[in-house]
Specification:
heterodimer, A: about 550 residues, mainly alpha, Cytochrome C Oxidase, Chain A, 16 helices, 4 strands, B: about 270 residues, Cytochrome Bc1 Complex, Chain D, domain 2, 3 domains, binds protoporphyrin IX containing FE, binds copper (II) ion
Chain lengths: ~550, ~270
């Protein structure tokens, strides 16, 4: 039951439109800092573009996808029209206003501070307020997901919450709490300085606040993808979900352990004690658990689908899978990218190995592989899967869809593998210019050039994606039926209360945040000698 | 749903969740705060509490670490971007009176005829900081240091306000404008050198960095060499020493000649 299709479509279209624009910026950045181009003469343009690219790709795009998908899940999993539609639109418009308000100063060169804010760099206050509005808009969504679940529960006391909605609400709670770190940084530290009320800022404390957001935001980006693994993939390829309980446990684990680990982003920072770095590093290892559970469960579910289609043998079943089905293709690509990205992640999370790749191109290679690759390719899959239900029309041409997914997959590998490689060789990230005539990095010119080729393949794929979605609106009407989620092998009749509700897990999430963050934050906040003068950008 | 049903150790999910989380926390805390500090042989602790504090990041001076060795005096100036903004007429006027002493080297209009820096229209924060550093000894010069020793903070602020207020005039002996050398445009990223303009004004101005256009070539060159050799040490966090050390003598010559040949009109204003 999808009643408010316009609402969902508005979120998706805005998400994909800004994604398309940011994709151009990404490809441009790749190109101008490669050996194929001489030099833009003014690094400021590069950082302007980078701030826009990062802000859109990191905040605006994934948030809108999570929201749009969340509304669709709420209606179709709970089979009840969305409660609070006006609020939902208000949240949407807050995001529109916030995104415009943030992007205008960035375009004018008044806020080239990068999406991680980088204090003591301080840009135009409108940039930060714009970001805050985007977050506030998304908090409305969080509240609505909670309200809708409550309304449903009142009418279905004791019934198991459908897995899709359970996961969706878990993701929204995770986001609500993880966004608090950056919100505190913005409201208590950065915005007062940007307004000129203060001229110094504790950059170390700001980095700790930001790390509170930065790790778990990754899991917020990931949520729609994981929800799609569990609740779309098995259905779309004609199989069953291997275990509903496993899904619940995985999402609960994300909720609990994604938060208290963010200090792994400050391994190289002197203001955080080594003891806390170790605790966060150890907890980071735990976060592999829900992903491993997921990989196992989804592989098992896919195998069920294959065997239902007559697949045999220990590996022979793989051939029996519906490889011409775009969702099948997408999930296979996503898993391959996730596998490589996960392996790289093991290096990032270990306190010692991290030092070799800290702040190098390895990092950007890594998160493009995981985020731009494994996660975003499933955003594509979600859009393809939902589109016929949202537009009431079939997708134009599945061959085009498959080509688009192939291009993204190949493009992502061609872009990110050399990207990792130059990082291992020590090429720093976030630099606008590299002197490839210098013998120290001239051997890397070839790898960087390969990345540029990959970037253009990605750009073509992204534009093809937009083209497919746009032309789908002009197809003849076709009824796609009700939107459904996958059914588990063993029908779920009852679920233990703990796996059907969030109270324990939210309490644990907050509790672990307190144990792992309170001391570093409070001691830094209490000291009077940790602030440095702000550096205003674009103030000339 | 009742909270009492959930939040009780009779609920296996609750006890497992809380038990595992607490257990892991305790275990990792033991590892991070006790085992690992002691595993590092080069660290010496007065006791267990000392080890824990050190791992928690409490700033402390351990007894075994010798006190910081005496090096060159470093700049103690703390500049914030708004510190000298919008000076009053009175401040500028006082500065003008005080500046009469400076005119012998820096010129009556703030344009030097003696290879001293031109001060007319220089950023106020720059003049203020250099005076502070001359007074504290972080920067020293046989001619300049004696002038700074008696200045009070307010005098320095007034002088800075006055010189910042003066119009930027052409250099005393303008030379034909040279093309921009490679080192100025690109810096040298592999050697950690940013383009000069990213601090010195043509791309962006970082508080405390002077604009350089039309300054004396001999002066610019001498300063770069002093930074490179470590004779001048008042750049905060070695920002300029790190750059000058990595520059080749030829690059120093090119950069000095280039900036000396530039007209002051191209300097961007800041406020
Ligand atoms: C055509 C495809 C893309 C290309 C060529 C590309 C390229 C780049 C480049 C060159 C950077 C700057 C790295 C640096 O300076 O160190 C960057 C940063 C970034 N990209 Fe992409 N990108 C692409 C797609 C994506 C996608 C799909 C996402 C996520 C949805 C994404 C998210 C980000 C983020 C969050 C940053 C960090 C910005 C920062 O470091 O401040 N990018 N990208
Ligand atoms: Cu992280």
């Amino acid at each position: 039951m999808l009643v408010n299709r316009k609402l969902v479509l508005a979120h998706f279209w805005l998400a994909f439109a800004v994604f398309g624009l940011a994709l151009f910026l990404g490809a441009w950045q790749m190109f101008v800092r490669s050996p194929l181009y001489t030099w833009i003469s003014d690094p400021e343009w590069y950082y302007r573009s980078l701030t826009a690219h990062g802000t859109v790709m990191g905040y605006v795009f994934p948030t809108l996808v999570a929201m749009g998908f969340g509304y669709a899940i709420s209606e179709s999993a709970l089979k009840q029209p969305l409660v609070g539609v006006r609020w939902a639109w208000a949240g949407f418009w807050l995001i529109v206003v916030g995104a415009v308000m943030a992007m205008v100063p960035v375009a004018l060169g008044r806020a080239s501070v990068l999406y991680t804010f980088y204090p003591p760099l301080i840009g135009s206050v409108f940039y930060y307020i714009g970001v805050v509005l985007v977050v506030v808009g998304s908090w409305i969504w969080v509240a609505l997901m909670s309200v809708n679940l409550r309304v449903w529960r009142r009418e279905h006391p004791g019934e198991p919450v459908p897995l899709a909605m359970f996961a969706n609400v878990a993701g929204s709670y995770l986001w609500a709490w993880t966004a608090v770190g950056a919100a505190l940084e913005l409201l208590l530290q950065i915005i007062p300085v940007a307004l000129g009320w203060r001229t110094t800022i504790d950059a170390g404390l700001a980095r700790v606040f930001f790390s509170w957001t930065l790790h778990a935001i990754v899991y917020f980006w990931l949520m729609p993808t994981y929800i799609a693994y569990y609740t779309i993939v098995p259905r779309a390829i004609g199989g069953r979900l291997y275990s509903d309980t496993m899904g619940r446990i995985a999402f609960i684990l994300f909720l609990v352990v994604a938060m208290p680990i963010g200090i792994h982003h400050t391994f190289a920072d002197p203001q955080v004690g080594a003891g806390f770095k170790f605790i966060h590093s150890a907890f980071t290892a735990l976060v592999a658990l829900p992903t491993l559970l997921t990989v196992f469960t989804i592989c098992a579910s896919v195998e069920i689908a294959a065997r239902l289609r007559g697949g045999r043998g220990p590996f022979g079943w793989i051939g029996a899978l519906p490889w011409d089905n775009p969702i099948m293709l997408a999930v296979a690509f996503s898993f391959v990218l996730l596998g490589f990205g996960g392996a790289g992640g093991l290096i990032n999370m270990s306190y010692q190995l991290d030092t070799t790749i800290h702040n190098t191109q390895w990092i950007t290679g890594h998160f493009h592989l995981i985020f731009g690759g494994a996660i975003v390719i499933m955003y594509f899959a979600i859009a393809y899967d939902l589109w016929p239900h949202l537009t009431g029309r079939a997708l134009p041409d599945l061959r085009l869809v498959r080509a688009q997914l192939w291009l993204w997959f190949v493009g992502m590998i061609v872009t990110t593998f050399p990207w990792h490689w130059v990082g291992i060789l020590g090429m720093p990230r976030r630099m606008a210019y590299y002197d490839y005539s210098d013998p120290a990095i001239s051997p890397q010119a070839f790898s960087v050039t390969l990345s540029v080729i990959g970037a253009f393949v990605l750009l073509i794929s992204g534009l093809l994606f937009l083209y497919i979605l746009a032309t789908a609106h002009r197809q003849p009407a076709a009824d796609a039926g009700a939107y459904r989620f996958s059914v588990p092998v063993h029908p779920v009749h009852t679920v233990p209360l703990a796996l059907n509700s969030f109270a324990i897990w939210v309490a644990l999430m907050i509790g672990l945040t307190v144990t792992n963050y309170a001391y570093p934050i409070l001691t830094l906040a209490a000291r009077s000698d940790t602030s440095v003068p702000a550096v205003y950008v674009g103030a000339q | 749903m009742s909270a009492r049903e959930l939040f009780t150790f009779r609920n296996p999910y609750f006890s497992a969740g809380v038990g595992l989380a607490a257990g892991l926390f305790v275990l990792t805390a033991l590892g991070g705060f006790i085992v690992l500090p002691y595993a590092q042989k080069e660290l010496k602790f007065a006791g267990l509490w000392d080890a824990i504090c050190s791992a928690a990041g409490v700033p402390q001076r351990s007894a075994s670490v010798p006190t910081a060795k005496v090096g060159p005096r470093l700049s103690e100036a703390v500049l914030t971007p708004t510190m000298l903004a919008r000076p009053g007429q009175e401040s500028i006027g006082r500065g003008a009176t005080l500046a009469q002493r400076c005119a012998i080297c820096h010129g009556p209009t703030g344009i030097s005829r003696a290879d001293s820096p031109n001060l007319a229209g220089q950023y106020a924060s720059v003049i203020y900081k250099e005076l502070l550093d001359f007074r504290s000894g972080a920067r020293s010069n046989a001619v300049m240091s004696p002038f700074a020793v008696d200045l009070k903070d307010q005098d320095m602020a007034d002088l800075a306000a006055y010189y910042a207020y003066l119009p930027r005039l052409p250099a005393y002996h303008p030379t034909p404008q040279l093309p921009r050398p490679r080192i100025v445009i690109y810096g040298a990223p592999v050697r950690g050198i940013a383009p000069c303009g990213s601090c010195h004004g043509s791309l962006d101005n970082k508080t405390g960095s002077p604009w350089l256009e039309g300054q004396s070539e001999a002066y610019l060159k001498a300063q770069l060499q002093a930074f490179a050799s470590g004779r001048r040490t008042n750049d905060i966090s070695q920002q300029m020493r790190n750059i000058a050390r990595a520059m080749t003598p030829q690059e120093i010559d090119e950069a000095a000649a280039y900036y000396a040949s530039q007209p002051t009109e191209i300097v961007k204003s800041t406020d």
